[in-house]
Specification:
FAD/NAD(P)-binding domain; 17 strands; nine-stranded mixed beta sheet; binds flavin-adenine dinucleotide; alpha/beta
């Protein structure tokens, strides 16, 4: 009998595993895939979570954060305009290939029992819980579901009217700018930022797009949708195979379901262009584990631990979802209505910066 079984070894699941293990809990962390591997992501790690990330990483991995490229500004390319905003404090750019593997190893170092290639098939019970995987069955006093946006455990019954997909790859670019560049077009956007700048003029950029499936399905098609991106990408050399994911669906955030705590994308998927998904995953994973530690120490009941998590999630994270979906709606306004708004944003960078802070 474990104290806690965590499903999913992404940022949310590993943050929960490290926090609970360091708090003295007996933890089993289950991951369907293997690390290291590329994941579809813009790889923009917002500043709000950098201190937490530094604390979660085991000492051999802290250089990942220390040496990460910093991103002090953003540029939005839309309707022929360029909106610029400073990012204060700067965010970090960390390839998921490295980030997820470092967090996974840090969970093992913290004392969690970590098992890869173990897909969870079902969860039953109301405490204790029985978790059935491709390789066996396990029992725990509590469960955190951190299995991401669209796992077999989180699928929404409703079909999305419009299908969105994500696609990303790394490319070589000479001296890339130190900005996160968001290229918007009808039916999607593509984010580009440096993930490695060796200093001798060579660099590695990550290009990650969220796009309607009827608009594009490959990065080449995505690049052709935006004139400035098409020109820029002509000089790129591929450094990784593209990875894709679908569908991308936005739902009302739900941090607790059937006695199970949900963290990261499993609880709620925030618009990728605001670059806060990794931060939310780290923070909600750590928060879920902290709330459960009281239950493992017999200070509170499981129901109380869940209620505490639900209330803290509502207070800290739900406003971020509201602010980012307002910006998404604004960006999807008809071009004629968008025009005066873009004029205001272009001429008042402080207001643009304020909008960015609302998504944090
Ligand atoms: C196009 C795009 C661009 C993005 N850009 C950014 C960005 O720049 N910055 C940012 O912060 N966020 C970005 N995001 C969002 C970010 O990628 C996610 O918010 C983040 O990965 C969430 O972490 P997580 O741990 O909740 O889920 P995940 O990283 O998805 O991890 C979930 C894990 O659970 C495992 N799993 C699933 N089902 C099972 C099962 N049944 N049993 C066992 N294991 C299971 C999966 O294999 C996976 O490893 C982007 C997303 C997209 C789609």
């Amino acid at each position: 009998m474990y104290d806690l079984i965590i499903i999913g070894g992404g940022p949310a699941g590993t943050a929960a595993a490290i926090t609970a293990s360091r708090g003295g809990a007996h933890v089993l962390l289950l991951e369907r895939g293997r690390f290291p591997r590329h994941k579809v992501c813009g790889e923009f790690v917002s500043a709000e979570s950098l201190e937490l990330l530094g604390a979660l990483l085991a000492s051999p991995h802290v250089s990942l954060l220390r040496d990460a490229v910093r991103i002090p500004r953003s540029r939005v390319f839309l309707d022929g305009r360029v909106l610029q905003a400073r990012i204060r404090p700067p965010s970090a750019s960390i390839a998921r290939l490295d980030l997820d593997a470092a967090l996974w190893q840090s969970a093992t170092s913290a004392g969690a029992e970590t098992r890869q290639q173990q897909a969870v098939q079902s969860i039953s019970g109301a405490g204790p819980f029985r978790v059935v995987t491709s390789d066996g069955e396990f029992e725990a006093r509590a469960v955190i579901n951190a299995s991401g946006r669209w796992s077999n455990l989180n699928r929404a019954s409703e079909a999305a009217a419009v299908k969105w997909l994500g696609v990303k790859a790394h490319f070589a670019e000479a001296s890339p700018p130190d900005s996160v560049d968001l290229y918007f077009f009808d039916g999607g956007y593509c984010g580009v930022q440096p993930v490695d700048c060796s200093g001798n003029g060579s660099g590695r950029v990550n290009a990650a797009a969220m796009v309607r499936a009827d608009v594009a399905s490959t990065l080449a098609e995505v690049f052709s949708k935006h004139p400035a991106l098409l020109v820029r990408s002509r000089h790129w050399q591929p450094l990784s195979d593209p990875v894709t994911t679908s569908p991308l669906m936005f739902r009302v955030p739900q941090p607790v379901r059937d006695g199970i705590l949900l963290a990261g994308d499993a609880a709620g998927f925030v618009d990728p262009f605001v670059g806060d998904g990794i931060s939310l995953a780290l923070r909600s994973g750590a928060l879920a584990a902290e709330c459960l530690l009281g239950f493992f120490r017999k200070n509170v009941s499981l129901a109380d631990a869940e209620a505490n998590y639900q209330a803290a999630y509502q207070r800290r994270f739900v406003p971020i979802f509201g602010a980012s979906s307002k910006i998404r709606r604004m960006l999807r306004l008809p071009r004629a209505l968008r025009k005066p708004l873009l004029f205001i944003l272009e001429s008042t960078p402080a207001f643009t910066e304020y909008l960015v802070t609302r998504t944090r």
